[in-house]
Design a protein that fits this description.
Helices cover 38% and strands 13% of the residues. By secondary structure, the chain is of the alpha+beta class. It has a domain at 15-103: Double Stranded RNA Binding Domain. One of its GO terms (molecular function) is peptidyl-tRNA hydrolase activity. Residues 132-142 have a biased composition (Basic residues).
């Protein structure tokens, strides 16, 4: 029995490639929300990052993710928690999860043909449906 396949190790992203901006969070929270900039906006340039290998970069850029800008910059907003530190941690965890999705190459689809039985069943069901609809036509009411 072969050992289970593990995904390749996640690339370590240096601090210099991450841009963090602290802003005031939206939503309920009263006076604290209005005074303290606890929300984090984390930006990571996927298109220009030297830390990512070319296949991983291509897979991440090909994703249809609304957090990705047209220039290939991933913008993650974290404001779930009350503290700046916890929101920073949350943003980095979400960045790691996003990068992890690009590490695994999708399996190639193996083209197969439908079996003769499945084709016959499908055509038989179409024939039955056709006769049911034909019997409903206005001519039957005359």
């Amino acid at each position: 029995m072969s050992p289970p396949m593990s995904s390749p190790p996640a690339p370590s992203i240096p601090e210099s490639e991450l841009v963090e901006r602290f802003v005031r969070a939206a939503g309920p929270g009263g006076q604290n929300v209005n005074k303290v900039a606890t929300a984090v906006e984390l930006r990571f340039d996927v298109a220009g990052s030297p830390s990512l290998s070319e296949p991983v970069r291509a897979r991440l850029l090909a994703k249809r993710d609304r957090r990705m800008t047209g220039e290939g910059v991933l913008v993650i907003n974290a404001q779930r928690f009350r503290t700046q530190d916890r929101n920073r941690q949350d943003a980095r965890e979400r960045l790691a999860a996003f990068i992890a999705t690009g590490l695994v190459a999708p399996k190639k689809r193996v083209a197969t043909r439908p079996t003769r039985g499945s084709v016959e069943r499908r055509l038989g069901a179409k024939r039955e449906r056709s006769t049911v609809k034909r019997r409903r036509s206005a001519k039957a009411w005359d």
